[in-house]
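Progress note, project year one: complex with zinc ion.
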Amino acid sequence: MKLYVCMMAMMHLGNKGALTRGKDVGKAIEMPNYFYIIEHKDGICLVDAGVECTANETPVPEGDPISVLKKLGHEPRDVRYVILTHMHIDHTFYMSRFPDSVFIIRKSELKMAWWHDKNEGGYCYEHYKDTRDFKYIQLPDDVDFDVFGDGSVVLTDTRGHSAGHQSVLLHLPEYGRIMLTGDAASLEDNLRFMLVPGTCTSIGKAEESLQKIQHFEDIGYELFFSHEATQKLRLFPDFYE
Ligand SMILES: [Zn+2]
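Model obtained:
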């Protein structure tokens, strides 16, 4: 089993404080946008589906999921599962390019994305309007879901930042245990200072999710934050196995 950490763009945010409530307000920040490819003997997973690059994002050349899969010798139809941590705008842009895959998303997230409350920002309907008839495994909240039934890729509830956010627990045969936090902890500061990640559906749930992530770090998981520029990761074409 291999994990590829793929950076597809650098996002430029004028106010870090938007993500770290009260800390570093007004400070500009650079944030990588990652997606992940897992090659497992029983199938390929794509975790998160990329960002649309506009004036606020600098793309990595040929860094999008389609191009990276191609470099690995795969077509989109070879991807068995597309796992979305959540469906905010910076994680969904390439969703419609995977009509042959099974999407694994929390049901509460799908519902919020398709008909979000007026005050619930962050979703871009245009990205997934053509995916209504795709195949979905719609997970209920709270449960853990063992994708391949062998403990190597387990999805766990970390809602709060969004209605149905989930994080990914990986058990790599050689490297060991990694948690892809998604935006339940966008930045390392979210965890170190217990600051909920930006606008949240539920601040209480977001805090519980930070505590849950802290627990996984305490028991030996290495945390890969979703938008932390200071974290040194092995980036594609390098990998973890
Ligand atoms: Zn994000």
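The pocket of zinc ion is lined by residues 88, 90-91, 183, 186, 226-227 (CB under 6 Å).
Residues 203-218 form the longest helix (16 residues).
No further modelling is planned for this target in the current period.
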